[in-house]
Amino acid sequence: MMQARHVTQDRPLVLIVDDDSAMRDAVGELMLSVGMDAIRYGSTRELLAEDFPDRPGCLVLDVRMPGISGLDLQKQLNARGVTKPIIFLTAYADVPMTVAAMKAGAIDFFTKPFRDQALLDAVGQAIDVDLRQREANAQARRNNELFSSLTVREKQVFKQVAEGRLNKQIAYDLGISEVTVKLHRGNLMRKMQVRSLGELMKAWATLSQN
Predict the structure, then answer these.
(1) How far apart are CA 44 and CA 57, in angstroms?
(2) What distance in Å separates the CA atoms of residue 106 and residue 85, rounded to the nearest whole number?
């Protein structure tokens, strides 16, 4: 494995896995030439032996490698809930293989040799996807932390609001006045840091309690 040079937390990081040392070095140098860090691995086992760096980026995987193949690695990562975008490289592509990789969420699939700019474009797209995923995950964590600050009653009202219940229906179900329901709604919206019903519903969709 070859570590990235000049590593910083905000620079994109590309993880390259290829048993062909010349290929992984070429891809690594290409990434470095446009300001992205790269870590190179000679096998999927090397990658799996380490924790994933907490940085925006993607994986560039050779499909056919000794031991765990790139496609097998994709399946393992999906099973673990690791959503890091993947770009596949292969010298021997076929339609079923390509379809399987894309259905499982791959960003792109390149046959060697490939154009440098085409790979860079795909990596840029993959990093954009990862950045959006990271922001969504961070927002979900924030929403769950805010939700934990609600009182039991506010959580009950929140749930009923999310189910589309009207204030008077919520009041009847919980045995409280409609004025009290409105008070709880105002409090929970303030605590959840939202300003509209639409924002509140989006926050509800991210909660692990659902």
Answers:
(1) 17
(2) 7
Q: Residue 85 carries which DSSP code?
A: -
Q: Which residue has the tokens 């922001």?
A: 135
Structure pTM? 0.79
User: Nearest to residue 36, comparing CAs of 52, 12, 60?
Assistant: 12
Domains of the chain: 13-136 (3.40.50.2300), 148-205 (1.10.10.10)
Which amino acid would we find at residue 1? Answer: M
- Please state, in angstroms and rounded to a whole number, the distance separating the CA atoms of residues 107 and 119: 11
Q: What is the pLDDT of residues 65-97, one digit of tens each?
A: 888 888 888 888 888 888 899 999 988 777 777
Alpha carbon distance 91, 154 (integer Å): 58
Question: Distance between CA 25 and CA 31 in Å, rounded?
Answer: 10
Task: Give the integer Cα–Cα distance in Å for 26 and 19.
Answer: 13
Over residues 30-61, the pLDDT tens digits come to 999 999 999 999 999 999 888 888 899 999 99
* Integer Cα distance of 152 and 204 in angstroms: 15
What angle do the packed helices 178-191 and 152-162 form, to 10 degrees? 90
